[in-house]
Specification:
Strands 1-2 form a two-stranded antiparallel ribbon. The protein has 290 residues and is an all-alpha fold. The relative contact order is 0.12. It is globular, with a radius of gyration of 23 Å. α3 runs antiparallel to α4 and α4 runs antiparallel to α5. Helices cover 79% and strands 3% of the residues. It has one domain: Rhopdopsin 7-helix transmembrane proteins (Up-down Bundle). A hairpin with an 8-residue loop joins β1 and β2. The C terminus is likely disordered.
């Protein structure tokens, strides 16, 4: 039985409300995490050297803020022009894709560092990541190009929505899942080797190598891959927005944790060196009280 026009409008209104809740939750989640890490983050931004990793960190960290702002504008702005909505959707997708790429690059560099920057592995991973990025971006923009953009005609309900689906959208997550599974496997192999060598506590080694961050990203991608299969409703595709936000948070938190640990090691080593020097020259280290 073909749904009536009223049923279609009610479904569209419910969908716009659903998108609004998801994006408000995403904005709240990002803001809360940013406030919690504000001191550590600004310490890193002020004291760390400018490198490619730092640039990727900034893009991965702040691109979700830009995409969330665009998403909230799409949801709450009274716009009846589908062409303008499609342009905003393209900008929104680009910002999310930039954040996703930078987050995955941080994971790739972390995995390469675990394997002592093995040249063969590094070339293979960088080549694979470039191929996956290019193909996934093409598939997603193809899905957007053939998607249906709808605006609200119900008074009091604003925003526009779009439907994503089909093989193009599905395949982009399949490629991402395979790539993340490779990173997870390489990290897990290194963790097992470290555990056998050090004979330490397995949980401590797992935490040290951030294996749970890898597992979280893998789980999110698997969820986004299965949802289009289990649910035909395109509204559930908005979980992709949450994945972009969460992946950015866990990737940047992992990098912050590693950087602060590295700084702590350098400071501890310097203090040990100064203490040993004072002992050799027969003097006591000067203590400054603030």
């Amino acid at each position: 039985m073909k749904p009536s026009a009223n049923d279609v409008q009610i479904a569209a209104a419910w969908g716009l409300h659903y998108f609004a809740y998801i994006r408000m939750a995403q904005a709240t989640f990002w803001t809360y995490d940013y406030v919690c890490c504000l001191h550590e983050e600004w310490t890193f931004l002020r004291q760390s050297r400018w490198t490619r990793v730092k640039v990727m960190y900034i893009f991965a960290r702040y691109a979700p803020l830009f995409s969330t702002t665009i998403g909230l504008y799409i949801t709450f702005s009274p716009d009846e022009n589908p062409n303008k909505c499609r342009q905003l959707i393209n900008i929104y997708t680009c910002a999310g894709l930039i954040s996703l790429i930078c987050s995955e690059c941080i994971f790739v560099l972390k995995t390469c560092a675990l394997w002592n920057n093995n040249r063969v592995l590094r070339v293979a991973m960088l080549t694979t990541s470039f191929a996956v990025t290019a193909i996934s971006a093409g598939l997603r923009f193809k899905a957007i190009a053939i998607s249906h953009v709808a605006t609200s005609v119900i008074p009091g309900i604003t925003g526009c929505s779009w439907s994503l689906g089909g093989i193009w959208y599905y395949m982009s997550f399949v490629l991402l899942l395979i790539f993340q599974l490779g990173l997870f496997s390489l990290t897990l192999i290194h963790v097992i080797q470290s555990w056998r060598t050090a004979r330490g506590h397995l949980y401590t080694i797992l935490v040290k190598h951030n294996i749970f961050y890898y597992a979280c990203g893998l789980l999110l991608t698997a969820t986004n891959m299965l949802i289009p299969v289990l649910f035909s409703d395109s509204l559930f595709h908005s979980f992709e927005d949450l994945e972009v936000c969460v992946l950015a948070i866990i990737a940047t938190r992992m990098h912050l944790h590693l950087w602060h640990n590295d700084q702590h090691v350098h400071i501890s080593g310097l203090q040990t060196f100064l203490s040993n020097t004072c002992i050799l020259v027969g003097s006591e280290p000067e203590v400054t009280e603030s």
